[in-house]
């Protein structure tokens, strides 16, 4: 069975639009879990544009594992080591971007990432690196001791030619390197099944589409349908 991690960032985006407390992303996370989500993902950005610091302990206290999505900065590593979530996913982060635009440059940032990965692992946190489906990035992730890679599916979701083949090759490389394989970004009902079919895939993390679809169907039914699709 492929695990489904539900990213609840954009419930917080809606909450923050009025500066209040509603809708509560923790309540959304609870509903997602009841509806079949295997874990909750939340990205605490440096600019705190959606998830807030106070949200994170409440999310960790839920019954499903928390995946703390974060930039590879000293501040975020410190916060993660204090919180000790089940997992951390290190992602690239630009202040002006609307959403994550690509994978982490593990090759170019190898030295800086090494100490941060080790600090997180020493705190008992399972480390994942969000990377493009590129052989050198995957092999470097393995060399750095990260047990998990999450393949960025954004180019595939935008209809890029040969992107599925590129992801298939990357999945094979990750498994050959002994890495646990996750994937995510831009996935919908219409494009998720080909990604779910990647050999060895253990987990998908999906957020924006599910929160958007919840406007029409409700979050519970949206999570349930996605879970059926990825395991069909």
UniProtKB/TrEMBL annotation:
**Reactions accelerated catalytically:** 3-amino-2-oxopropyl phosphate + 1-deoxy-D-xylulose 5-phosphate = pyridoxine 5'-phosphate + phosphate + 2 H2O + H(+)
User: Could you tell me what this protein is called?
Assistant: Pyridoxine 5'-phosphate synthase
Q: Does the keyword Transferase apply?
A: yes
Provide the protein's localization: Cytoplasm
Enzyme Commission number(s): 2.6.99.2
Question: What is the species listed in this Swiss-Prot or TrEMBL entry?
Answer: Gluconobacter kondonii
- Per its UniProt entry, what is the enzyme's top EC class, as one word? transferase
Ordered alphabetically, the record's keywords are: Cytoplasm, Pyridoxine biosynthesis, Transferase
Q: What SUPFAM superfamilies would the database entry show? A: Pyridoxine 5'-phosphate synthase
